[in-house]
Design brief:
alpha/beta; single chain; globular; 226 residues; Rossmann fold; 6 helices
Amino acid sequence: MKVPENEVKMESSDEDDEEDEVWRKHYSSKHRILLVGEGDFSFALCLANHFGSARNIVATCLDSQDDLERKFSDGIRNVRELEERGCLVFYGIDVRNMSQHFFLRTQRFDRIVYNFPHVGFLFREDSFCQIQLNKELVEGFLRNARVLLKKGDGEIHVTHKEGEPYNKWELVEEAMKAGLQLQETVPFCKNDYPGYQNKRADGGHSNAPFWLGDCSTYKFKLNQSP
């Protein structure tokens, strides 16, 4: 999506302020929300449907628009619905350098959300190389998200699979290195987000779901320690 740099702002209007606040689990219609690595954008659409609007949401993916259409059966349709509800959608956003993006760098968000970060299935999931690549992805995301986070009550949420080999990504340790501190870890339940479809997003079965198992949402805040 091409957005003139000086023409688009995410600012609350009087109309927004007068609307009743609506919550979906950890997320409020009053939050400015950045969703990254969105796959087929079904998580963003779930929030938008529940809020009744997507004017408070910026949703991004790494794919181009053509790749999104090729990889996901509902991707383009979901994006169209989001845009009709006022969501800003950006393609080709690499979370490892997103803080330099011409629009995102002008914003500060209450919630920055990355569900199931993954570089793609390049090696065996439990191989050293695959683990290191995923650690680098998470590290790059956290360092960039920190720049875009609103000070005070802003939170970065990473939903992540538990157990081997995912614990070797050392998510909490990487967050500490990026100047963040863990607030809490809560179980993730897909049923809390009606319509959300977790997708493999890579390879010949990109539109297929992946097995979730035990998952948690890790909530991080800026480290306020001196």
